[in-house]
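Q: Entry one of two.
A:
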Amino acid sequence: MGFTWLLTLSEHAGSVSSTAAGTILPRGFFLATGLIYILALGLHRLAWRLAIPSALPILALALVVNWLLHGLHVVSHGQVETLHTTSLALLLFYAGLNTDLDRIRGRLSLALTLPTIGILLSGLLLGLLLWALGHIGLPFLPRAGLAAPLPLGVAMLTATCLLPTDGSANEELAHQWGHHAPKKVQPVLAFEAALGSATAILCFGLVVTLFLGLQHGGQGDFRLGAVQELPSSLLELVRHLLAGLAAGLLVGLLANRLIPLLVSHSEHLLILAVSVAFVAYAMGNLLGGGGLISVYIAGLVLANRPQTRGPSGHAGLRHVLLPFNTTAEFTLLLLLGLLVHPGVMVQMLPLGMVLGLLLELLVRPLVLLGLGGAPRGQRLERLLIAAGGLRGAVPLALSLALLEQVPRLRDVHPLEAVDLATQMQALVAVAVITSLVLKGVVLPRLLQRWVSPEPPPAEAA
């Protein structure tokens, strides 16, 4: 994933080539990073008190820093790649640990179809809607503010970034619902967020494979070559997936055996958990597969084939990794806010808001309806599941890959590729913010009125 992370302390912090003493990092990096994380933590606490998704103020903080401060330091691609990959790997390992089948008994069918078939249907429908908007435009904005009609592959890939939901945001939403929500709603939403993250990454790779174009040649050669290479590309994707599955399964099974042997105190569990995540990622890459898929599968195996119960089991792993998971979410939210171009976000604001509203008010309810009607006793559950599914860190993490993948897609003009990728990254950011405001601020307050239990009748005197 090639992209540049721009971070600054002030205009007078030094030239771009200046580095902090004893490091290869820009001068002021540690001070700026520490202050930003402290502010993010304070905003997280404030968001909890205000009963809003914490991702909103953290994203706002990063955007304000991005907009106000000039004279930016350039951090190398490799440093950003390391930070981004490490954060995403920890998120997926934690998601695997949360993919616990025991928690969704009684709603197994919906919990399994929503983050699999549901994500595929959502991506297809949302991608077609975005493609149509990119051609027809909005009533007040021709072609939705884009310089040229949006290629189908770019629309599908951008829609794929918006498919995964956020487990932490859904937990915050469940806290707002309180006792009004049935007990089985939150486990379904948590399972969707966990399994859906892995499914979305697979869909991302599939879309890139299907719409991959040649780097050279005319338009006719471009399409013909892409079609000729499609079978081999699909086989490579399957091999990539199988290698990741095998690596994750192997590491997960070995980790299950190692926990009773190596963990004698609870503080040892964190060391083992982080080590397992890194080994799973490395093994996936060594076998020619997907490191991120391998990390997720390793966590999934640990969650559903536990050799040890209690503090050293998968529940204990989730507990010790929770601070790392939170830090990874903060990092990805701040990364996107610092990477995105504020001016491009303003340009993409109308289309992004429309896309976010279509996703949450049209696509998700239609997909839930398509997965099967709800029995009378489960209609409230289906309503709350439709109102849940907030987007957060994982969609933003996937959007960072658009800068590398969009220029490789079919029908993308080389001279317009970078600008188009930047616009799509900003579009995802606006759509995520729209989703957070709608489902994290507006709908919970409306639903609390609609689903509040009636007060008990007054006793006769």
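Q: Entry two of two.
A:
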Amino acid sequence: MLLLGSVTFTFDVFLCFKSPCPPFANTIRGSVLVLLIWLSTYIFIGYPRLVMANYLRIHSPNGMFWFGVSNQVGALIGSVAAYLLVETFSQFKEKLPCESLPC
């Protein structure tokens, strides 16, 4: 499941880097595709994380603490990376509401 989650996450990042004109932009097919990719990413990555947390809760006295620490460190690293990509390196471009782009 983690491998499938990694694949869907990679496709999700690809769509983000193609902004403001990702594949199938301004179509129902594109909207459904993005929705399904996000949903499947959260399921394929979230469920194994839940299983690991449950295993650690049962088998390790300090496991949940360190699991929480690792989750928070991962969130910090991801937040810093996202901030740098958006604010410092301007990798993502926003489409203005009144702007017409030839996608």
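A: Comment on entry two: Residues 20 and 96 are 9 Å apart (CA to CA). The chain has one domain: 2-88.
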